[in-house]
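hi! just following up on the protien thing from before. the input was this:
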Amino acid sequence: MASSAVGLPMRRGAPVLARWSQSERSRRVFLIVGSVIVAVFVIAAIAPQVFTSQNPNALYAANPLSLPSTQHWLGTDELGRDFFARVVYGARASLTMSVLVVAIGAAIGVLVGVVSGFAGRRVDDVLMRVVDLFLSFPGFVLALALAAALGRGERSVVIALSIVWWPSYARLIRGMVLGLKHRLHVESARALGAGPLRIVRKHMLPFMWEQLNARVTQDLGYALVNVAGLGFVGLGAQPPTPEWGSLLESGLQYVANGWWLTVFPGLAITLWTLGVAMLGDGMAGFARGEGNVHRR
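and the predicted 3d structure came back as:
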């Protein structure tokens, strides 16, 4: 009887620990692979000279639409420009706009969400009605209209997408604040005389950081898809600045005899989105896994 009572928890716990160990390995793989992909693209955006010595705007008039070769790894475009250099340098505009969109949208959303969740009911109702108004429109359609109204260019894309991006963060943060503000440690801090800013900074943000960090990481992929979409319709970075969305649009005219002009920008967008998704899933998985282990 005693041995059975002692052995029972071990038999129950062994599959759980085995599953946790397997999921931990998966999270590690996601983190490592995602980090490598993201690091490569970030290096390409910051220092494209690491990957290519070619000038992305230099013309090789004798070789328009040439196939990938040892001289031009991804071939040349319709004007004879080295396409590998165009794709590598395109990371700078594409990733810069994506990071700015997520950073600005998250900053505004966090501020609005904290105020909405922490303030009284009237303020909360007004702010949430504004959020509902923005969320009632299809995001990309609204960004398209705003970017067209602001005029073509990278700044217009960042402003338009930031306006579209912040409401989802505001709703997310508001929900977390409402869940945290009546917890014992927050009530204790309030009873000891801590002000709203200190309560939010010291007693709420640490509990929100893991989920917010994972959300921001994953949103970098979604933001890039939207940036590329606006670039595809001609509202993003203007020629001769290379940007993945505009490269896709210009290559679409030559898809019959220049397939590489659409394949490689599309592959770059896919790889970046996959990389940040894996990184975000790995980070979120580790946070959930650690919490599960502590609970056990």
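The chain is about 75% helix and 0% strand.
The longest helix spans residues 2-46.
cheers
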